[in-house]
Amino acid sequence: TFFAYSPATVDATFSPENGITVDSYDTSNGTDLLFTRAVADNSNLYNNGCIALPFVNAFSKVVLNVRSMVSMDRTLRLKRVYIEDLAYKGAFRSLPAEHWTATADRKTFEFYNGDIEIEGSSMNVGSLTLLPQKPGQPLKLIIDIYKDGELIVTDRIINTEPIDIEWGVGKLHEYTLDVYSDTATFITDILTTYDRK
What we know:
There is one protein chain. About 0% of the residues lie in helices and about 55% in strands. By secondary structure, it is mainly β. The strands form four sheets. Strands 6, 11, 14, 15 and 16 form a five-stranded mixed sheet that branches. Strand 8 and strand 9 (about 100) form a beta hairpin. The chain is elongated and about 70 Å long.
C-alpha cells in the first residue's frame, strides 16, 4: 500500500482503513493540500509494476462570473462579492471515501472587492480555494446603480439564493450570476462542476 501527499510539511498519518489522515488543517493558509487516491493495479501482468498515481487537490475551487441584466439606460457597478460563515478548518480522510470534517471555525470569504462596471456579457470576478462543504448561505453582492450616467442607488446589497450544492473534494464549481437592480440569479444551465486538472 502506497500513500502520497503534498506538502511534506503537513502532519499526516496513514492506514489502509482511513488512507491519508490530516487531523487539523487551515485552508486559509495559502497552501494547497494534495493527495493520491487508491489505485487498483489491474494490469500488473503488462505494466512491469508501473501505475500512475496522480495528485488530487483536497479542496474545492469556486469560480464566480457575473453579467448585467438591466435596461440600456442603467449601469451597474460591482463593489463587493462575498459569502459569510464558511468553515475553513477541518480534518481530512482519504478512505473509505474522501471527506472533510469541519471545525466550528468560520469566517467571511471575498470573491471581489473594488469597483468595476458589470458588463452585459459574462465576466469573471474572482475564484477561491475553499474547504469542501455545503455552504447553505447566499452570495452577497454590493452594487451601485446609475441611470443615464447619474448615481441613483449606492451600496445596494443583493443576496442570491442559498448555495445548496455541496462543494466536493478535488472539484471546480463555476457559477454565473445574472445581476438585476435588486436581484442576482444563478444561471443553472451555465453552472458547471468538474474535476480540477
